[in-house]
Amino acid sequence: MSRRKPSTSQLAIVDRNGEADGRQIAKKDRKLSFGERWTYAPAPEASNYIKLRDRYQLFINGRFVAPKSGEYFDSINPATEEKLTEIGSANEKDVDLAVKAARRAYKTVWSKMPGRERGKYLFRIARLIQEKARELAVLETMDGGKTIKESREIALPFVAAHFFYYAGWADKLEYAFPGRKARPLGVAGQIIPWNFPLLMAAWKLAPALACGNTCVLKPAETTSITALHLAEIFQEAGLPDGVVNIVTGAGETGGAIVNHSDIDKIAFTGSTEVGKRIASATAGTKKKLTLELGGKAANIIFDDAPIDQAVEGIIAGIYFNQGHVCCAGSRLFVQENVFPTVIRKLRDRISTLRVGDPLDKNSDIGAINSRAQLDKICELVDSGLKQGAQLVQARARLPARGYWYPPSFFTGVTASHRIAQEEIFGPVLSVMTFRTPEEAIARANNTPYGLSAGVWTDKGSKIFKIVNQLRAGVVWANTYNKFDPSSPFGGYKESGFGREGGRHGLLPYLTLS
Ligand code: NAP
Ligand code: MG
After folding, report:
1. CA gyration radius for the chain?
2. Taking each helix axis from N to C terminus, what angle separates 156-169 and 197-210, rounded to the nearest 10 degrees?
3. What is the pLDDT of residues 423-464, one digit of tens each?
4. Helix or strand or coil: residue 112?
């Protein structure tokens, strides 16, 4: 399997001066690349004050406890492959203890507490997250590989904003659904992925708690550390014991939550494959279910779009967070007459992106989350080359250790290629063309997924026409990847069902009568 430099004639490498096929030009004849002329000095975020524990235990009933299995797994830094710490592996018995603690807390404290009191706890948690935002951002970057720019400036502020937002709803549920009585469901089992560890935890916990439910949360195996630091914040905020329980472990731990008989609701974010398994495991039980699964979003550029602005949006849409984004704009449809311009600009732009140390404030693209994910990206890129597409890849100096993939895009892609159909979940874009708006809509909708989409055009009327026909939960117009706690997010088709965020995000955690 090729990793960084697929040796094939279908590969063009772009240099930092935007030059294609730099490989084939003799070094003496080559213009000095951008990176060779000058480069930024390293600007690492300080991490020496971060205190990682040697071992992280489970958080059950307000306390950190050793797993019954006695087993721990390593958590590594994907940018260095160094072991950061060990994390407890929860088995069925641990999950059972967590569910019992959550049930007790639900019955005796949390469901009885007036909404305004629950809201106070959530406000306190939000403020503590703000206070510790820098430390949490560094931890998130060390554990997951995302750049410090993203974890500090996007993820953490948004995590706090989410708790603030739902804190505000806690005493207003009767106004959220006028004329109806809103009641909590009970115990929620929540399973989250590794791409936005704290943000996914906030998306799950904040609305559930605001509505009066108690929670058992399982973070992803590769990114459990920050959830356990969040548990410390719950302790500091004085959150009653058992209201939130955090059980770490692999897929089996998630399975034990899904199959536990005393859970009222399962909320899952992750792959469509596991989502389908959870849907069949919960079918016919009392458990309510929401699923936020994969995506293969289409970004559509019309010839009347402001092309420079569109290219920036496309870059942000696919290379943000190493492409580890379920709503990443991973398919690009370009109107045929502007295709050469868009490709040239994309090529130039990816050659300026910096791949490297995620803790460096200058890095645009950090580390791929795990070796397994890197292998998956490489396998799909290989399939694209085998099926006849052409790959353009930035010439990035990748660190010797760690998991890395340079920003890349494919041209010559057809709808039947795997790279046009399957979620790559990495910094790889598939570019295709269209002639008419009808063709753009039909091709954009030609996917089993339906999470998000983007439209770039100067004409407001065209935006309205197109967005109403795109089968996607979120459609951005002349922008991409914009989020706010007050706007709902979720999918159609195999991207799942249920909404997170906004007033809609309360519904999965309530019964209305
Ligand atoms: P995943 O396997 O679906 O994992 C998501 C969460 O579910 C993790 O906490 C995982 O635990 C847990 N899990 C795994 N098997 C389970 C089971 N049988 N029952 C209950 N829980 C289970 O996703 P992934 O391995 O992290 O990534 C695989 C693919 O999913 C990615 O390549 C991408 O295509 C997609 N993905 C989508 C999103 C999204 O936001 N929509 C996010 C991440 C990934 P472990 O982590 O310990 O396995
Ligand atoms: Mg890790």
Report:
1. 23
2. 10
3. 999 999 999 999 999 999 999 999 999 999 999 999 999 999
4. coil
Q: Which domains does the chain have, with CATH numbers?
A: 11-39+295-477 (3.40.309.10), 62-69+90-293+492-512 (3.40.605.10)
Task: For the beta carbon of residue 468, count every other beta carbon within 10 angstroms.
Answer: 9
CA of 30 from ligand 1 middle (Å) equals 45
The alpha carbon of 389 and the centre of ligand 2 are apart by a number of angstroms equal to: 33
Angle (CA) 481-485-489 rounded to 5° is 55
> Can you tell me which atom of ligand 1 is nearest the CA of 275?
3
Q: Which atom of ligand 1 is nearest to the CA of 295?
A: 41
Q: Which ligand is nearest to the CA of 221?
A: 1
Residue with CA at minimum distance from ligand 1 atom 27: 271
Q: Provide the annotated active-site residues.
A: 292, 326
**pLDDT, position 12:** 80
Can you tell me which atom of ligand 1 is nearest the CA of 277?
A: 18
Residues 405, 156: Cα–Cα separation, whole Å: 25
DSSP 444-489: HH-SS--SEEEEE-S-HHHHHHHHTT---SEEEES--S---TTS-B
Q: Ligand 2 centre and the CA of 248: distance in Å?
A: 13
Pocket test for ligand 1, best of 92, 191, 322 (most atoms within 8 A of CB): 191
Q: According to the model, what pLDDT value does residue 2 have?
A: 42
Percentage, residues of the chain above pLDDT 90: 91
Q: Could you read off the pLDDT of 229-268 as tens digits, one per residue?
A: 999 999 999 999 999 999 999 999 999 999 999 999 999 9
